[in-house]
Design brief:
The chain has 618 residues and is an alpha/beta fold. The protein is 42% helix and 14% strand. The protein starts with a helix and ends with a helix.
Length: 618
């Protein structure tokens, strides 16, 4: 543990430090971050890039009285260090340990629980408006990345700023990255702004020279101010932020603490909305992260010296299985195109991009747009596959209903990180997708038990002339058995048994098989059904099972509420059979390893077996 950081009382001691001490602090924090995150894993590159900015914010403002609102929140490790939590980093992202995102229950300095992008300006504007209504006095600062600025909610908030005109500060942390390299018109606009210091230096020089002219100098300056807008447009190619009601400062060197502090002090005195454009380098100070910021955006434990991840499995991930299979499918079918919302690498589409660069579309962090864009592609005769994390697809619920399912368009939703995801916690678990998709008309939903079945379902999806979702988890792909022939709405039996039947959803099959082995040792014979289809359900097999077994158990990596278990219970409700549903409770699940969370919430093999034994004993 870093003794230099441990001896300070943050954030109070920060106020007493001079520029030299602050500079030393930035080096100590970077060393600390690399050392700690190499052990636990986490979001490293984004935090290394935000060190000086975080220091300057806590130097100039008085948290928690002043409200620091971090968009997404994965870049708040430095903020946590500077608010007295450095000693908790050995438990970063561990069960009952420090969260990798802001958590208000963890510290009063964490103003809002965040985890999804593009929301901080809306949150900040709401808090600023509430402050004004209540007649209170504090600063509101929203920190947002350039990747998050591509999200529609951010633009809706920017549009609302001018009408409210409340005092607030928006800081754009511009590192040219989200997870993958940023794309789109806004990214290009920021690229032009990064080179706009010629305008700022020119304006300063004109004012300095003209003010020296005797008698008429000040008058000339007043006249020149009236021409300010035309000069801006001539030199910077548009000042969108000032048109939206902000006072614009920037670009500012995001690794110069002195310049950052001076700019923040100016912004603090301004009585209206201020927009500060800060340029940073993702992965700053650790060469491995600077070279591959995408890899070090979110990384597991790694070797500090080499930067090489310490892998726990040599098996391909579900994302990789998906990406490789879709690439092969696109080789054979010209209709197939892929869509990503700033997640090409994360969803395994890097191989597809390399092989078919003209058939992949990265729309930025804009999931709602991605879904409707896919609808347009499908309407025009293509077969779009939208690869997206389960938790982020939640942001496009209306578009799924209105623009895809209502039109019955053949869009395939490839839902990665479905189910529990472990260390990222509440905001990133994908445990709601079956519930929010299952009730939508025209939707077909599949859940593979392993990697081979994922490939088979992708192949089968080409035959579905309507909306289709295939959901699969994070991590290494299981290898349970060769897939059966996929038939719409039909399940398959994995294991025969006589005492109880377990309906397993997707990759829970591995745990269910192990639970059945435990039951066998107790003299209980369990039948296992691999559902394959969440919608439509295999009602014929279900009705027969309800006549044969006194107990049917459903196991799904989804909340019980609205999940497949409730659907199965409805189908067999008139039969003389007991149905119990095993899944996640009606709650937000904390962070920890997936195995820890399965065990804690009764979803590991032993817990499943014990639950069945208790039910049979009754």
């Amino acid at each position: 543990m870093n003794k230099y950081l441990m001896k300070h009382r943050f954030p109070d001691d920060l106020k007493k430090m001079d520029n030299g001490e602050l500079e030393l602090l930035s080096y100590e924090i970077r060393d600390f971050l690399v050392e700690e995150v190499s052990k636990t894993g986490g979001h490293l590159a984004s935090n290394l890039g935000a060190v000086e900015l975080s220091i300057a914010l806590h130097k100039v403002f008085d948290s928690p009285k002043d409200k620091l609102i971090w968009d997404v929140g994965h870049q708040t490790y430095v903020h946590k260090i500077l608010t007295g939590r450095a000693d908790k980093f050995p438990g970063l992202r561990q069960l009952n340990g420090l969260s990798g995102f802001p958590k208000s229950k963890e510290s009063p300095h964490d103003i809002f629980d965040t985890g999804h992008s593009s929301t901080s300006i809306s949150l900040g504007l709401g808090m600023a408006a509430a402050r004004d209504v209540k007649g209170e006095d504090y600063n509101v600062i929203s920190i947002i990345g350039d990747g998050a600025m591509t999200g529609g909610v951010a633009f809706e908030a920017l549009n609302n700023v001018a009408s409210l005109n409340s005092k607030m500060i928006v800081i754009l942390n511009d590192n040219e990255m989200s997870i993958s390299k940023n794309t789109g018109g806004f990214s290009k606009y920021l690229g032009r702004l990064r080179g706009s210091d010629k305008y700022l230096s020119m304006k300063s020089q004109i004012k300095k020279n003209v003010s020296k002219v005797p008698v008429i100098g000040e008058g000339m300056i007043t006249g020149l101010k009236n021409a300010r807008k035309s000069i801006k447009y001539a030199m910077i190619d548009g000042i969108i932020f000032e048109e939206l009601g902000f006072k614009y400062f920037g670009p500012v060197d995001g690794h110069d603490i002195n310049e950052l502090c001076e700019t923040l002090e100016l912004a603090k005195e301004y009585k209206k909305p201020v927009f500060i454009h800060v340029i940073t380098k993702k992965g700053k100070g650790y060469s491995k992260a600077e070279e591959r910021p995408d890899i070090f955006h979110g990384i597991g434990p790694f070797d500090m010296d080499t930067g090489i991840p310490i892998k726990s499995s040599d098996k391909p991930s579900y994302s990789k299985v998906f990406g490789n299979k879709l690439t092969k499918m696109a080789d054979e079918d010209d209709r197939i195109v892929a869509i990503s919302a700033a997640m090409i690498n994360g969803t395994g589409l890097d191989s597809f991009k390399e092989k078919h660069p003209d058939k992949i579309f990265d729309v930025g962090i804009a999931e709602g747009h991605a879904v409707t864009f896919a609808a347009g592609l499908a309407k025009a005769g293509l077969k779009p596959y939208f690869a997206v994390y389960s938790t982020f697809l939640q942001r496009a619920y209306d578009e799924i209903i209105e623009d895809v399912c209502l039109q019955n368009l053949p869009v395939v939703f490839c839902i990665d990180r479905a189910g529990i995801v472990g260390a990222d916690g509440e905001t990133h678990h994908g445990i709601f997708d079956l519930s929010y998709l299952r009730h939508i008309p025209n939707m077909t939903i599949m859940a593979p038990k392993d990697g081979a079945e994922l490939e088979a379902m992708l192949e089968f999806s080409k035959t579905i002339d309507g909306p289709c979702a295939i959901r699969y988890p994070r991590g290494s792909a299981a290898d349970i058995s060769k897939p059966n022939k996929i038939t719409l709405g039909k399940s398959h039996q994995i294991k025969r048994g006589t005492d109880v039947e377990i309906w397993s959803v997707g990759t829970m099959a591995d745990k269910v098989i192990k639970a059945a082995d435990i039951l066998k040792a107790k003299g209980i014979s369990a039948s296992i059904i691999n559902t394959e289809f969440v919608k439509p359900l295999d009602t014929d097999r279900l009705k027969k099972s309800a006549e044969k077994y006194p107990l049917i158990v459903t196991v799904e990596d989804n909340v019980v509420s609205g999940g497949i278990g409730e659907g199965i219970k409805d189908i067999v409700s008139l039969k003389d059979v007991k149905v119990i549903n095993i899944g996640w409770p009606d709650d937000f699940i904390e962070h920890g390893t997936s195995d820890e969370l399965y065990a804690k919430h009764g979803m590991d093999p032993r817990s499943i077996a014990e639950r069945i034994i208790k039910e049979l004993e009754r």
